[in-house]
């Protein structure tokens, strides 16, 4: 315990914002390609298959990229306004799997695209409201769009049923639950609707009214799902009974030490404690809270590891690569890779790597020591920074991992960056070289 | 009348072929032969000539004033100095061995054009200290005597050896220029003929009308003297029309005759165009003229167009009457008037004789020729050797060598016919490359004996023509050609090579009225036979429009590229001119910069050679009368000079002062001495006489010169900064180096110096950004490997510094103001050779050469590494990537002896080579990838 406190004090004093420095032996992304094509903020990335991904953003463009080469394969034009949601839908033919893209835009239209040809296969315009989220239920061959109303569509873009919403803000997230239920996150509540086949009987069960707007939903393993709210509440639900299983209120800044809050000049902004993103791999739930990260174990119903200040500003997207590796991206323009380590190692000395000549630095937020409430939790492990990817000059909105093929990040600076393993790439290039050599029959 | 010029036979010297066999012979193209005359001083020769450097002289044999110089290239009076151009013109024109035959041979009806091949001769004037390659050519001029105007182009140099040994190349270049001139001339001639024909037609019609009126006036005047005169006049005009038509046929048949000249490669497209144009003209005038010519009826009313009869019929002097059957035998009066006029009429200038486009293109070509032959033989040879070597390493040459691609073509073995109107690239002909000639080796003869490599198109046309012309009377334009042809008939086809058109035409006339259709079977399938409807209008173009005719004609025949091509030509020419100006000014600028010691060296040279030159000159002039014919022997002025500085001739055992050029293996000497101080005075001394342009950088004008200049900066950098080695390592291992500073000049200088170390800088240095004053982004880092960045104290500056710190992992920062360097540590040994701040190299160009050799060495290693299969890929299926990795590391460390950091250089170079190999022109749809690694940087201070 002593050690812990000491550690955190050290962290707080020397480097509240982590800086790993330039030596990153565990970071394998040693090559990058900058993909240009968008004219505005790129907000969404979607993996089409194992070598293609689609990006969409505020310019209404959807671009399809080859991740292996970095080529732009298709340019899907059609939306006049920013894209609000994008997802893939897979049609199973006899032989082939056909993946299409569904996009929703602020121009109140929905489109189905063929990423192979770049054609707009289907389109629906003049919806009552713009769609904010999409959910594809492959099993039932339907897909749902959520906005101010909840609509169910079949594969041919025919409206199956529609359900107007009572709330102002509309549905922000949709997940599929067992027994043909879906859960929709709406302002301040989670609704559940079921439908049986195409009969579309609905009933809504308002389970819980959160303190603030409920933002993120995610389906966890067997019979559980979780939701997170702007107030930093993380709630685990039973998916069949719809009752609350666990409640965790993550309050970074609710420090018992009153002095600290004074130093922090006022109350924390809501964004600093709101859950920005939730993700899970079944065992762990990763919540991005403000600029921090919070790993929660489903089995033990307890916090596994956390890092209060993982980024310089809000974390926008996270991903659990495995049970001990995770990745996060943030408004500060960086992507960071973390490892959950058992023993807290002494903090690395902050790299005083910069010249004296530009000794201005970023105004680093001084933040207080973490709340004792969290520290009190036993068996806590360490969230250790193993590498960061710096390249974007704007907020990194999202990233998609293609495992060994690389990582695609999209950002507010209109760029996508393809991060790759340099060694693998060089091996591939050598292979290509010798192939070409063989084709030519010599130099 | 003319003191017999020293005509030098171009013969090979066999005795040099028999050197003792080398046990370790280099490949032929790399072997550096002994300097051909081992006992001669290669640099002393220029000293006694009256001109300062080599130049190209164009002279003509004017029928009015005799030989006269027209222009020199470069067009600078300083070049020729006190050299008497008039006298030299006389001499070079007096050795015209073109087998020219002027006028028409007996037995033919019309004046014939003589198609003569150019002649080449090497001429020496030991008194003047001038030697010249002389290229004679003949242009056609309707107003000239015998329709020909003899010209010659001469490459005048003070070094005989240079001319002799560069004969092939000179011949090649001048043939190109000559072909270009002649092509333009044929065009202009055809135009002139056409104008003339139109005038004649007009005259004819007028006369016919008059005659008709007379006839109507009454039979009593039928046989009056006036009527007879009119009839005579008319007949005369008709005859003249026939003659001119025949001339047109002859000129259009120009291309069909076989060329004996191996170097006479013409642009096939030009030929086609010219041909079809002539066909068109022929067709047109055939249609108009024959009916009225033979029928004697009223003219067809072609009088609506054309000028009023100008110099209508006063042209052809000696006429003979056999050809045309209805010819009256009398001599026109106008002959006298014309021959009297011969001396007051103004002869056309060369520019008028050729199309303006062609003329300018020729001049540009000659300028280029002059430029490429600057420097002395030794320099030319080493440069060419250098290029030959570079060409061998195509895969890696992009890394550190300057781009060769421009001046590759002519030396690479694809001899492209020079085309004034800039036709597409597809029509070049593959020829053997002109061999590098330093010693007169046997392969010179080979080069001479390869006339078989004519372009296939002309070959086919020849054969076709021979088929066509088989049954026809054997009429050759020039008897000498004819005889030679029959001798050489083994070359191509056994048929007779008559000039097709004239043959056909004559046959027709002899047979009387044969249908016009017999003209139609045209050997050239491509030519457009249908006359353009707009043609007449077009033809009205008066002489002002003549300038643009090249473009117009192209438009008429080619149809689609009229204005563009002309514009292109013009703009290209202009660009050339500009470039030239730049080159000159650049060289002037450069000369003083070229470091104090360099100046001193050259001063030394001058002191050494100049005083010697004068007495030699006197001595030589004394000797001159006794020297009889051949200047093949050396002017004896040279031997004493060797006491002053030795050029490594084996006979002189006392190498005295700094200039030491061992005469063994020259390449070895260069590489050996390049490490020493002052060795590059071989370069500067080699052309000690022409100071204005330093010898380096003739080929790639700007870049190499800049690089040489940058060598000084790089040397200064290396000597000045103890952390230079780290900076160089950053650049060579692909880590972007940012030079930060407030003073633009200083940053730019540093960047220019460091740009030498940027691998694959691109043709125009795309990977280097000399001065940037805005914050950069990641894409900039990806694009540029060396950036000069402005340090500003403003909000903009802070955002720039922010980007610096943000991307600090990708860059190294050299602070020019505080002289610090922040970069990963380098502990390797590989670069100590070029980044030793206690180096003994004092001169920039020396350092540049030293650097070049080191970098070349690196590139070779990288090449080996890249293309060694087992270092990158598993040998067997069971091997994992780790095995390969360890093998690679083992190779780098143990076989190449490279440490961790040094390996990074090689890996980066290898990566570049791979990319270049996979995408040769660097163009792919995908974004370029940017590699980096995560290492800690440290700060180096002075």
Description:
The complex is a heterodimer of chains A (443) and B (942). Chain A is mostly beta strands and 443 residues long. Chain A has four helices and 31 strands. Chain A has a four-stranded antiparallel sheet. In chain A, strands 2-3-4-5 form a four-stranded antiparallel sheet, with no helix packed on it. In chain A, β12 and β13 (159-164) form a beta hairpin. Chain A is globular and about 70 Å long. By secondary structure, chain B is of the alpha+beta class. In chain B, the strands form three sheets. In chain B, strands 1-4-5-6-2-3 form a six-stranded antiparallel sheet. Chain B has a six-stranded mixed sheet with strand order 10-11-9-12-13-15. Chain B is elongated. Residues 1-19, 289-342, 406-415 and 424-702 of chain B have low confidence and may be disordered. The chains are: A mainly beta (443), B alpha+beta (942). Chains A and B meet through β1, β31 and α4 of A and α26, α27, α29, α30 and β14 of B. β1 (29-35) of chain A pairs antiparallel with β14 (929-931) of chain B, so a sheet runs across the interface.
SSE arrangement:
The complex is a heterodimer of chains A (443) and B (942).
Chain A (H helix, E strand, L loop, with lengths): L1 H13 L14 E7 L6 E6 L4 E6 L4 E5 L5 E5 L6 E10 L4 E9 L3 E6 L4 E6 L8 E5 L4 E5 L2 E6 L4 E6 L8 E5 L3 E6 L2 E6 L19 E6 L4 E6 L3 E6 L5 E6 L8 H6 L11 E6 L3 E6 L2 E6 L4 E6 L7 E6 L4 E6 L3 E8 L30 H4 L6 E9 L5 E6 L5 E5 L4 E6 H19 L3
Antiparallel strand pairs in A: 1-31, 2-3, 3-4, 4-5, 6-7, 7-8, 8-9, 10-11, 11-12, 12-13, 14-15, 15-16, 17-18, 18-19, 19-20, 21-22, 22-23, 23-24, 25-26, 26-27, 27-28, 29-30, 30-31
Chain B lengths: L5 E3 L46 E8 L3 E8 L3 H4 L4 H9 L25 E7 L4 E11 L7 E10 L2 H6 L1 H51 L7 H28 L15 H28 L38 H8 L8 H4 L2 H17 L4 H16 L4 H4 L4 H8 L1 E2 L13 E2 L12 H6 L7 H13 L10 H9 L12 H12 L23 H5 L9 H10 L3 H32 L2 H28 L42 H8 L7 H6 L14 H20 L3 H9 L3 E6 L2 H11 L13 E5 L5 H6 L2 E5 L4 H12 L4 E5 L4 E4 L20 H23 L14 H15 L4 H19 L10 E3 L6 E4 L1
Parallel strand pairs in B: 9-11, 9-12, 10-11
Antiparallel strand pairs in B: 1-4, 2-3, 2-6, 4-5, 5-6, 7-8, 12-13, 13-15
GO biological process, one term (chain A): regulation of autophagy
Protein name (chain A): WD repeat domain 41
Keywords (chain A): Repeat, WD repeat
